[in-house]
Amino acid sequence: MTPTRVLVVDDEPDERALIVRHLRRLGCDVVDVPTAELALDDEANLEVAVAFVDLRLPGMSGADLIDLLHRLRPAMGIVVTSVLDTDDYPPGDGWLPKPFTGDGVRQALTAALEVRQDR
Description:
- By secondary structure, the chain is of the alpha/beta class.
- The protein has helices spanning 13-25, 36-41, 62-72, 102-118, and strands at 5-9, 29-33, 50-54, 77-82, 94-97.
- The protein has four helices and five strands, in the order E-H-E-H-E-H-E-E-H.
- A five-stranded parallel β-sheet has the order 2-1-3-4-5, with helices on both faces.
């Protein structure tokens, strides 16, 4: 079985490393970058099943990146991550409030993959 390819966009190195570690434990092939601009710089970064996007990013905001990903890659699952209240999250296929756990990462990934399958 081919591993699920996932993009993680988070400017906090420790948070990004933790999400990446949990996703790799789940068997995912992970691409991680600290900014929205770097995510968009390489077309290969967008060849993923699911993107985990933090809302608070330097430069282009996570909300703007999520909006752009919805338009560019409508089949891509989007997991929104943030310290903000979940009521303030933009539309996504999964949610991962911070601080998060390995189980939270698994649940968010599963939710995004299920929604993606239905598209």
